[in-house]
Amino acid sequence: MASLDTPKLLVPVDVSTDSLPGDRLGDFLAGFDVVLLGYFPVPDQSLPAQLKLNRGDEAEARLERISEQVQASGVASSVETELVFTHDRQDPIDRVADERACDGVLVPGKTGAIERILVPLRGDLNLDRILSFAGAVARHSGASITLFHAVTDGDEDGEALLATAAEQLTAGGLDDARLTREVSEGDDSYAQIVERGSAFDLIVLGETDPSLRERIFGSIPAKITGQTDSPVVVVRDPTA
Predict the structure, then answer these.
(1) Contacts with 226 (C-beta within 8 Å, 6 or more apart), sequence order
(2) DSSP-derived secondary structure letter, 42
(3) Is residue 147 within 8 Å of residue 182, measured between CB atoms?
(4) What is the DSSP letter of 178?
(5) How far apart are CA 191 and CA 187, in angstroms?
(6) Looking at domain 8-102, which CATH architecture does it have?
(7) Is CATH 3.30.1360.10 what the domain over 116-235 is classified as, yes or no?
(8) What is the CA radius of gyration of the chain?
């Protein structure tokens, strides 16, 4: 894994159309090492190699335009690109994220400068990586962080979890004045994240079982990303 002083972020983009990411993408990616994964969806009845032969040049040109857009902002630390033609856009995520040693994967939303970060925590699984990632982004951007935990049964000590997380962030150099802790009770933690998420410029989640691809495109993030315009980063767990 790359040092989380400069997190490496995988950014999947659909290069099958001219609908490219907005102009604020470069602002959002300030301080990241960026891997742009340009994916071209292939219909079931077509062969990826044949479609790449026919439309590879146009897809490559679109990916290059996005790369130039990000680089023109002058704020991303570095930009790499990879182009894939695939029947299932989920397939390349794990492979490319692993090959390029990415720390997190972006689920698109409205992008711009990052001033407020929401970090929902469910427990200590992958906690160090989540906090390292969020802390690195906050230190570079000057953003504040809200640590959030939804207590779904009476036995959970959410205050203790968030206190431990806050201590790790301040030990890593983040000013305590830029930290907020919030514990809430309720049966649907994802609904609570969605309710709060629209007020934030970034939501940072942790990768959990069964796989990164399902964590991003499956039911868990869909409950969040399908109902908020805020971008979401899923932090990878290198031990998974």
Answers:
(1) none
(2) -
(3) yes
(4) G
(5) 9
(6) 3-Layer(aba) Sandwich (3.40)
(7) no
(8) 18
Strand, coil or helix: 97: helix
Which DSSP letter does residue 108 get?
P
Domain with CATH 3.40.50.620 in the chain: 8-102, 116-235
For the purposes of burial, counting CB atoms within 10 Å of the CB of 204, is it exposed (0-12), middle (13-18) or buried (19 or more)? Answer: buried
In this structure, the number of other CB atoms found within 10 A of the CB of residue 134 comes to 28
- Three-state SS sequence of 140-164: HHCCEEEEEEEECCCCCCHHHHHHH
Confidence (pLDDT) at 197 = 83
| Rounded Cα distance, 140 and 6, in Å | 9
Element (H, E) at 12: strand 8-14
CA distance 109 to 6: 22
Tokens coding 204 = 């940072």
| pLDDT digits 0-9 by tens, 183-233 | 887 666 777 888 888 889 899 988 765 555 555 555 455 566 566 677 888
Number of H helices, E strands in the chain: 8, 9
At residue 49 the predicted structure's pLDDT band, cuts being 50, 70 and 90, is very high
What whole-number distance in Å separates Cα of residue 36 and Cα of residue 184? 36
Per-residue confidence at 143, pLDDT binned at 50, 70, 90? very high
Tell me, what's the pLDDT at 229? 74
180, 167, 164, 205 alpha-carbon torsion, rounded to 10°: 60
What is residue 10's predicted lDDT score, i.e. its pLDDT? Answer: 93
